[in-house]
Inverse folding.
């Protein structure tokens, strides 16, 4: 599969990005808030869900990627150990809550209850794959609540 390069400019686009980064793994140190540039950048190892259709019995593939948010006014973390840059995180979803249009809050939700909330002037995000794929150790699985 060719490397992805996607952009999001509204909540529907952001939902597509969220689907592509679901189950991405990263460390706390891979999160970068750049207030002078109004950017929030996440370097992650995403599970390549788009390449998974024919390989459901295999562990699948991962790709190194960058998730970049522009027009970020503030970034607030909840239940993340910023003093532990090697702590591993699993990204579950990226969502948008509209405020005064076109602004609002983008939330990155992690397993274990951690989250990052970005106050944005508007949605402008990109997801860019960086390099070759490699075999995933395991296929992500989630238990469904009943």
């Amino acid at each position: 599969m060719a490397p992805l390069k996607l952009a999001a400019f509204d909540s529907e686009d952001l939902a597509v990005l969220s689907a592509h980064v679901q189950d991405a793994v990263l460390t706390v140190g891979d999160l970068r808030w750049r207030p002078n540039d109004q950017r929030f950048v996440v370097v992650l190892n995403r599970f390549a869900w788009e390449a998974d259709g024919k390989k459901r019995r295999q562990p699948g593939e991962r790709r190194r990627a960058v998730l970049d948010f522009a027009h970020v006014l503030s970034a607030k973390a909840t239940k993340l150990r910023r003093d532990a840059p090697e702590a591993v995180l699993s990204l579950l979803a990226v969502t948008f809550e509209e405020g005064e249009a076109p602004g609002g809050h983008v939330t990155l939700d992690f397993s274990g209850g951690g989250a990052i909330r970005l106050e944005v002037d508007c949605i402008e995000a990109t997801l860019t794959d960086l390099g070759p794929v490699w075999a995933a150790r395991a296929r992500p699985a989630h238990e469904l609540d009943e």
Residues 5-52+61-133 form one domain. The CA atoms of residues 70 and 103 lie 12 Å apart.
